[in-house]
Amino acid sequence: MADIIEPIGPRVLVRPIEQESRTSSGLYIPESAKEKPQKGEIMALGTADELVYGLAAGDLVLFEKYAGTQFQLDGTTYLLLDEGDVLARLRENGTT
Q: CA 56 → CA 5, 9, 30, distances in Å?
């Protein structure tokens, strides 16, 4: 879907990763108690000349809780963030 949505300027298109429905001990978390997602996968990036953090499509990132513009396309939720709203990139342990 990211080939249809092309961010303009220093923006990042992210697919938020929803919180699990159950805790690690097996307790069910109702929708009303779930936190707004703050973790997601980058699907597309805006103009490369304006991006400064070296992010890439496929990166897992943390972002500010209420940042960006949320929308749905073909049943999938996306966030369009300013690059500066991305707080950190998540890497697997042992990678650089």
A: 15, 15, 33
